[in-house]
């Protein structure tokens, strides 16, 4: 076998090996980046003005869209749940079905995905623009730690906002199910809320909040990482690099949210 033929035969395996090495390197870089960001939240003392500014951007400005999505998610669940349960003569369980679906799964997941689209993309784009315009390099030149100044406040604000926005989504979603089931379809309101009270346990609520905290860490870390290292991205620098970094941050965050949801659900059940 000639050297050329051997090279052609091994080229797919070489490509797979290189891709695997790049993946492991990216994963390790993201892990160290996240640890450094979390450390810079606490050491030195937290930069509260920066954190409050990010809480306003990530949390307060997301309330309306989260409430809107929660309302219509609950209304759809109420409709679908009613026409499914009525076939078995169990429409009285609608409240429990809506509440458990939202608190355990849909609340944390949809909240995280919506925040990724609204705030996560902005994080990646903002840091990416700061990178390509050399503002991050300027911070380092002035002996200002970019991780503490740019990344740590976003991580801290995400850890604060995700659980609170998930709680808003849960409450509004349950009210949406009430509108569909009780106001539109005639289920007794007392039965609707009594079933919720009898079925939902503290472990269900705790599990939803655990998921929201994990999603907060993943989304903030991925979006900040993609923006912070925009200049290292292959295939684009400048505006194209920022565009690629923002797209990658949103897509990767959404995929990781769903994968993490499956893993967490397996442990929490």
Automatic annotation (TrEMBL):
Its main location: membrane. One of its GO terms (cellular component) is ATP-binding cassette (ABC) transporter complex. It is a multi-pass membrane protein. Keywords: Membrane, Transmembrane, Transmembrane helix, Transport. The chain crosses the membrane at residues 25-43, 55-80, 92-115, 155-188, 208-229, 241-264. The lineage of its organism: Bacteria, Pseudomonadati, Thermodesulfobacteriota, Desulfovibrionia, Desulfovibrionales. This is ABC transporter permease. It comes from Solidesulfovibrio carbinolicus. It comes from the Bacteria. InterPro entries: ABC_MlaE_roteobac, Permease_MalE. It is found in: Membrane. Belongs to the MlaE permease family. GO terms for molecular function: phospholipid transporter activity.
